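Thread: Newbie trying to understand structure tokens

Hi all, I'm a second-year student working on a class project, and my supervisor (Dr. K.) asked me to get a predicted structure for one chain before our next meeting. I've only ever worked with sequences, so writing a 3D structure as a token string is new to me. If someone could post the tokens and maybe explain what I'm looking at, I'd be very grateful. Here's the chain:
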Amino acid sequence: MGKIKIPKGFKVWYENLLTIAQKSPDVPPPLLQHISKLESTQLPTIAASDMSLQQTEMAFGIKQATGTQPWMVPHLFFTLPADFGRFLELYDTLTKSGVRNEAKSRCRIDALIFVVYRSLSEQDLLPNTGDSRATLSFETPFKWSPVPVNGVPHTCTGTADYTVLFGGRDHMACHMIVLEAKKRDNLSGAGQLLAYMAMVQANRKARGQSNWSVWGCLSDGWDFNFYFLDLEGNWSSKMLSSAVWGWQEIANTLAHMIIQAQAVANSPLRLSLCSAQGPATRPSSVVSSVVKGPIALERKSASETAEPPAKRQRTSIGGSSALEAPGSVTSEVPSIGSLEIRLDEFLKESEAGLDRIAESD
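---
Reply by user tm_fold:
Sure, no problem. This is what the structure looks like when written as tokens:
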């Protein structure tokens, strides 16, 4: 069981709301009793590696696309070095009598990733510095909640073998490519890989990114099953075997994924998270797991958001979000049961408390 950690900013807001509710004679006792128990809520956990493809599709609301997808069209970004095939041959000779395990597969995958990265860098197609730089990460932890499994909210967790992170912040929403290594002749694990990809997608949607496409790959070092999860939650895959297609197309498919993921990683925040034209965002993972209607006010530091400094994003009582100029205060009067509360005064008090917390940290 994983206990939900409620952010400090929410606690300050929540304590102010609870104080007002306790002093008001208009709040029904059942409601007061319910909101007093929020901090003790726990969710059961489920490992992504234990999820079948069907479970992942149901839990994250994704499905398999039909037909050939545009990303499957072959691309040519570079020609593999002449010695790449020879390197793999020598490596296979060296490890011929070794056990066919995941570690052996990873060495071949490492060689492919390196040669693709080197070729793209030499062509200036992949910046090595700045907010667009790519970083190869190992054993990347993933966690997302609530995820419904058999009708019960869970926290989904796991550790991805490889991810490609774009930018300078190590945030789950920036890990645009997920790769899972498997031992020879075993490319099972689509449910696991897609769960990781779906967690990244859900995180990007919740943060208000305008593009939340995610890429992935299952490989044993000889065969590569590439995956793509699009904006509509439709996933597609393309299997390439080195024995059939050769390393040239495999390398260029990986290169295409990296270039596309880099462009998506730099996508701007949507102008309005509550716009009727934009896809619905996922509620806060902390709040939506304990109440049916999300009640959240989350304040993020500048280092945690990709928004322009002139504006900030705040989630309203009703669960929608809006972009406001700094210093502005919501004047909406929400109703909770028969209780009506003007937020202006205790929002200012909450923000002052947040500033004190930030200074103490």
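A couple of things are worth pointing out once you decode it. Residues 102-122 form the longest helix (21 residues). The first strand starts at residue 2 and ends at 3. Feel free to ask follow-ups in this thread.
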